[in-house]
Amino acid sequence: MEKKLVIIPTYNEIENISRIIEAVTGMEGGYEILVIDDGSPDGTAAAVKALQPGLPGRLHLIERSGKLGLGTAYIAGFRWALERDYDFIFEMDADFSHAPSDLPRLLAACKNSGGMAVGSRYCKGVSVVNWPIGRILISYFASVYVRKMLGFRIYDSTAGFVCYSRKALETIDLDAVKMKGYGFQIEMKYTVHKLGFQIEEVPVIFINREEGTSKMSGSIFGEAFWGVMALRFRKIRKR
């Protein structure tokens, strides 16, 4: 049976973590979860530990010492997954902006593409609920900028709801991934594309978080802007 792992990075997600774990593990298909917590002072990791006895072998936790960046959390999760022979590895937020019910659709698309599936907010118009218009415009035009700068035909290059095939992740030189914040999502998709894998976009509805606080900042957007310019001139190599 194929092994599926949903990686969920967290920092201060005590309002959401138990509910998202229950939602994902309650679905058919045997999805496992790896929570990577960056030293949340609100007790997020403790909440995960409290649920582990009831989900033996399905709920995993990596605790890190502080806020080390979204990208480094996912890289740690990818390494963990590859060492344990998972076949499909997902990125997903803890705050229900990504619907757990969409996981099977991403899985099917990833199997079809053989490389990556992206839960896309923009491949069928704009599918965002409860986001301020300014945030929508920044996100939408960031993907336009990426397409123009990199010649890369993905409508939602900054999407954080993703499924990778094991083969795609094994091919990437994870040590060479540079960006840690918002730009990490762009860099990973571009790398998968440059390594010759297909990427399939799956239309999803993105719902802004109702609980907890967004982790976005101006520095994260700045890293993405300048990082994309650097990507244009970087040679992408296989591991």
What secondary-structure arrangement, pairings included, does this model have?
Elements (H helix, E strand, L loop, with lengths): L3 E7 L6 H9 L6 E6 L6 H8 L7 E5 L6 H14 L4 E4 L11 H11 L2 E5 L7 E2 L3 H18 L11 E4 H6 L10 H13 L4 E5 L2 E2 L10 H15 L7
Parallel strand pairs: 1-2, 1-4, 2-3, 5-8, 6-9
Antiparallel strand pairs: 4-7, 5-7
Helix pairs in contact: 5-8, 7-8
CATH architecture: Alpha-Beta Complex
Fourth-tier CATH superfamily name: Spore Coat Polysaccharide Biosynthesis Protein SpsA, Chain A
The average pLDDT score comes to: 89
- C-alpha-based Rg, rounded: 17 Å
Can you count the beta strands? 9
Please count the helical segments: 8
The largest sheet, given as strand count, sense and whether it forms a barrel, is: 7 strands, mixed
Question: How many separate domains?
Answer: 1
Which fold does the CATH topology refer to?
Answer: Spore Coat Polysaccharide Biosynthesis Protein SpsA, Chain A
SS strand fraction: 15-25%
Class in CATH? Alpha Beta
C-alpha termini separation: 27 Å
What proportion of the residues is helical, as a percent range? Answer: 25-40%
Q: How do the strands line up in the largest sheet?
A: 3-2-1-4-7-5-8
Order of helices and strands: EHEHEHEHEEHEHHEEH
Give the CA-based shape.
globular
Structural class: alpha/beta
The stretches of 5 or more residues where confidence is low (pLDDT under 50) are: none
